[in-house]
User: Fold these one by one.
Assistant:
Number 1:
Amino acid sequence: MTNADFERIVDTTDDWIVSRTGIRERRIADNGTSTSDMAVAACQEALKMSGCSHEEIDLLILGTVTPDYRLPSCACVVQEKMGLPNAAAFDVVSACTGFINGLSIANSYIASGHAKKALIVGVEKLSAIVNYKDRNTCVLFGDGAGAAVVAGDDSGRGVLSTFMRSDGKMREMLWIKAGGTTHQYSAEHAASGADKVLMNGSEIFKVAVKEMANAVWHVMEDAGIDQSQVSLVVPHQANIRIIEALARRLKVDKDKVYINISKYGNTSAASVPIALDEAYREGRIKEGDHIVMVAFGGGLIWGSALVKW
Ligand code: UT7
């Protein structure tokens, strides 16, 4: 969907969307495509790139807030569709930080010897939970999936440090009020839009910049890596102004920060792995590079990971 498509359904303009968010297009899955279908497409590609067999994957972690079903987990659906006979599979509900939290969990499992090869996927069909009558939110979000295989070795490369934080006091800044057990689904809720994404964007903006910067500094300090050794920052793509403010706060050149928001909008848990994949395919990530991933979203939850590629 382009910004021109949104000009036809809500009171907005291409100029407002581009100048306030940096978004020009987003991908919207059709009705017949489920979250697990997108996850499978990304996971197949990741497995192929890694050279791992389906049998070798012993952990599948799926980050999403838009699972196929309330029960079972989307990870179990993906496990069946992929054919991963030896994988423990579960979802993490960490919104935009889903991929990074998944990576952090996988790293801990592998480091402790509880898993050998993990498949991590961030995937969202946000079009299913966005209110296309609310101009404050509908122009921001898109659908997508990204995946990675993580395996242990003793080369010194890999995940050097991860960081995860949350603050549930701020949960109502980005939430779906109705449909869970606190406010069970009702026709009134549906009519008022309470069963769709609600967001206080300007408040989140301020917390996002501050905490993403803190998260980046945390993993650099933990790994003993200084800023000059970081080749690329791969941030969650929620708003170009958030990414630019983050770069200024970190005192990092903008060309060391990967940005692809114009094509996809905010894809929540899928945003970091999609950006990571595109950066890699564009030759912006080389063996031995230090890469910092960082994300922030509903919960509120934020986190980061420093990887030696
Ligand atoms: O994924 C992780 C979590 N989410 C985020 O990190 C999102 C963080 N927040 C943001 O990206 C920005 O706050 C937004 C893009 C959501 C909004 O930008 P803003 O500069 O903070 O705008 P605002 O909310 O302060 O609204 C400014 C004005 C308002 O009009 P009034 O009240 O000043 O007359 C809005 O009604 O812009 C209006 N507005 C729009 N106008 C045209 C809001 N959405 C639109 C729209 N088109 N689509």
Number 2:
Amino acid sequence: MIVNMSDKATEQEIAHIIDRIREAGYQPHVTRGTERTIVAAVGSGRRHEIEALQVAPGVDNVVAIAQPFKLVSRQVRPERTVVRVNGVAIGADEIVVIAGPCSVESREQLLDTAHAVKRAGATMLRGGAYKPRTSPYDFQGLGLEALKILRDAREETGLPVVTEVMSTEDVDVICEYVDMLQVGARNMQNFALLRRLAKANKPILLKRGPSATVKEWLLAAEYLLAGGNREVVLCERGIKTFETEMRNTMDLAAIALARDLSHLPVIADPSHGTGKQSLIAAVSRAAVAVGADGLIIEVHPCPERALSDGPQSLDFTGFEKVMQALTEPLRRALTPPRPIPVAAQSCS
Ligand code: PEP
Ligand code: MN
């Protein structure tokens, strides 16, 4: 349930509504917009007591939320959220490009990549320290050593850094070294991890699970917001379908849908979404065209030697080309449709 306060509601009236929501057994979540304040009643409680608040002073109306996700929904917050990551705004006017290797493999590899992606125009750096690998025999990441390298790369380049967190045990140490924590696709529904990250004092990049619906993805984000962390960026990274030529199927419409249903910024990961270097430029342009607030792209100094995700990683020249492609106008300008002559008819 949402209590929409009137634009003239006083602080005392808002405080009264917050108290009444608590009394009715719900948790109050206050969103202060530019014109009015909205108080959401989250959880389960005595619904009729909230409905009755329609007649309380300072209340405009009380509405039921149609979607199971509440705090994430645009009904609760019609204005778009901008998430700030150490000086970089995600969800504002500029498209944010996060680039870097799938895994941090060495100091030299990460620093060379960080400088190269910065020169090409990236505004954030990525790099995996703890890697979720399908096989236990594959490279698992350098852990703490990688975190130190990521911190040094941020100091040298000024690029804020994002890395994946796989376990609640690692949250504190990762928070010491990086600016944003990524919840990987495989962990989207790791509810213990989501609850822990809701209490972390860092923005979260929440990837969509390979077989998650958009509703499940937004409900995963709801765990973070309900637990107290509102700094959440969603990331579409492709889903499993019957297609076998690509690693995943990039669900571009889900980017537009998530932005329609939620106020949170949404970025796209064409690297995992396609698994193919050759498709990154096209899918990046398409993602921006459907409304993505940014991109996360894997870049490696020598993809053929990468310890993870080489086939989808761009080398430095490839990444520069993608950055240029992002600024080019659409190649085929749309020709206006020719008018179709229609005999004037009256409608019945
Ligand atoms: C990654 O970003 O390298 C990664 C493992 O991503 P995902 O969780 O989307 O597979
Ligand atoms: Mn990867």
Number 3:
Amino acid sequence: MDPTQTEMPRKTCFLIGHPTGHSLSPTIHQAAYGALDMNWHYALMDVLEPDLDAVLAGIDGERIVGANVTIPHKQAVYERVDELSDTARAVGAVNTVYRRDGRLVGDNTDVAGFLGPLRAMGRDWSMARAVVLGAGGAARAVAHGLTRELGLAEVVVTARREAAARAIPDICAAPWEERVGVCAEADLIVNTTPVGMAPMEAASPLPDDFVFDAKQTVYDLIYAPETTRLMAAAQAAGASVIGGLPMLIGQAAAAFRIWTGRDMPLEAVNRALRQRMATGGSS
Ligand code: NAP
């Protein structure tokens, strides 16, 4: 977005966060623009909260089409948009912004991104019991998707700060110390804690002697490493496992559709991501 550039990209989207340096979003979106021969550009905007208003005002819906929002601004942007989608309102966080009829709209595509792999399994989840480990921003999106979109009858959230779990609507909260017992009873275990990613790659949110059932599905939101210690243990016991990469791509694809009206070319995106991760892009 350098005004001295002579050949300005026709349209720009960007990521608002702090820090943003290691984000995979530019790789995902640029690969999609390239594959579809679109003269668009995806930029990184490392922004501190006092500058958020100015950055959001720059989204004109014409040349600057929209933005993704990541840590730590998902709640702050939620407070600043003119309109919220039903999903963003229910989750209490915004990860995608765009302009509609002059008004700034905040949406949350993390929910669609999270649900994609579960829907792709083609099973009826409504009778399933799920346990969500962690009660931060991602857990709120996960819990909303499980209870409101997939209609699960029983979702237990267990977190170090039980008050944070209790603040999530439509779930049962359980103490962190009881996570082994509740996970043993679950059909679906979702890790939304950072335990398993750098600098905790060697750790798992469940103890090493936890006995997985082959009928269980274990979904770890962490995408680097692609297979966490939790996933490896579940896989070894014959359980189904899902990593965080499909969710990352799914939330990007949903934002891409909002901004461009087009489907993201997933094959090209997957290829670019694999290349980037193989050469050291980690988060
Ligand atoms: P967050 O708001 O900081 O929440 C993290 C949660 O994990 C909190 O409940 C926190 O508890 C808990 N936690 C942190 N360290 C822990 C530890 N050592 N032991 C037990 N619990 C711990 O973060 P978030 O935005 O929800 O993101 C969480 C994870 O999801 C990250 O790994 C992120 O990369 C991943 N994520 C992936 C995607 C994707 O597209 N794949 C999307 C969003 C997030 P306290 O409150 O006690 O600290």
Number 4:
Amino acid sequence: MAIRFLNTYTRTLEEFRPLDPAGKAVKIYTCGPTVYNYAHIGNFRAYLFEDLLQRHLESSGYDVQRVMNLTDVDDKTIRGCHAAGLPLAEFTQKYKDSFFEDLATLRIKPAMAFPSATDPVHIARMIEMIAHLVAHDYAYQAEDQSVYFRLNKFPNYGKLAHLNLDELRPSGRIRNDEYEKESVGDFALWKAWDEADGDVAWESPWGKGRPGWHIECSAMATELLGPEIDIHCGGVDNIFPHHEAEIAQSECCTGKQFVRYWLHCAHLMVESQKMSKSAGNFYTLRDLLEKGWSGREIRCVLLSVNYRLPLNFTFESLAGARSSLARIDAWVARLTETAGDEPHASAHPLASHNRFQQALDDDLNISGALGVLFDVIRASNRALDLGTFTPADARALLGWWDRVNAVLQFQREAEGAPKAVLDLVEARAAAREAKNWALSDEIRAQIEAAGWIVKDSKEGQKLTRK
Ligand code: AMP
Ligand code: ZN
């Protein structure tokens, strides 16, 4: 079965076909964080759905080229750096660093590039795009010296958000990066400097100023991925006005269809309420880590609901993730024990990789895919109980799990293994190198006696807690 995605632009389920004539490369642009604060778990829901998308495409044989931008200049970052009394770059660097730490904690695969809007290369590209838009009458400099996109020159504006512009009364020009659907109007591409900007400014053909948020993404996306992109993602709040504006700017510059498939994840709710600072139900990843939850458990919760459905975050759901992961850990440990020393094989009749993959092919149906995993766990545990499971069966099933885990990233890490255990692992590697299987088995037993399980994979030995 082919991969299908629900495309926000058409509101239909469409078969995925990459632009690459060889059918291999897939270009994905994902709107990244505005680095004025620690990212919250709502943001990470979006980044985790994008991680699932990338990993599923890769496990299906595609070569994914993903870009995620860092918005390090906009209305919010400027307000933030002034409040903190820091230069903009110093203020945003702290949140960039913490963002990368958080990505690693959640096992999110890094994008191919994380461009920053303030990189001189990208500022130059933004200015070049705006100049093109002005030259072709898609944009104009107004009396306030800012440059605005001329909305009535782009009749497709509103199509992504499914707005009927004829029914909306344009409200004039908009300088803010974010605005409501009721106030559709010419939006700012270049914002003329004002006092509130302080020393945040760049020279341009329209005088001193700074780019609007929307042109940042159009510039970085087309600069790094070219004029045509396969998939563009974000949370539903990005659809309007941000992605709508990205389409208008990019297509008026390049004359090409900017994006083939638009994928947006629904919002994260907390205890059935929309997560917000004012409601006091606002969590960063760090808040949850401090409460004793692990990155793996948080990953599991944020990933386990299909991305198009709202996700209600609760502490019961975290506890549920903890017990699901414990079940997986126990199953992997049991299989590893049964498998013996030989490498993992590829398939087992109990576990068709296809069924797991087919669920994800269907617009990343993660609940279906997890259903397949837990069916397999149940059936193989029963066979293990009955003693009908051979070491070859276990190796085959572990081979399947390796591929499933390459997408889910749910396997327990060997973090915290004591040095004595690591030394044993090293000694075992030497024994295996010398084809001394008896010694290798003996060392394995010692590792197990110390509370750890070692298994052999293509990348070498892997340690998990018993
Ligand atoms: P921002 O830093 O606000 O630009 O958001 C970064 C990404 O997180 C965007 O793709 C947003 O759509 C997404 N996002 C923000 N809040 C939520 C939420 N509560 N649930 C899911 N995604 C969100
Ligand atoms: Zn963006």
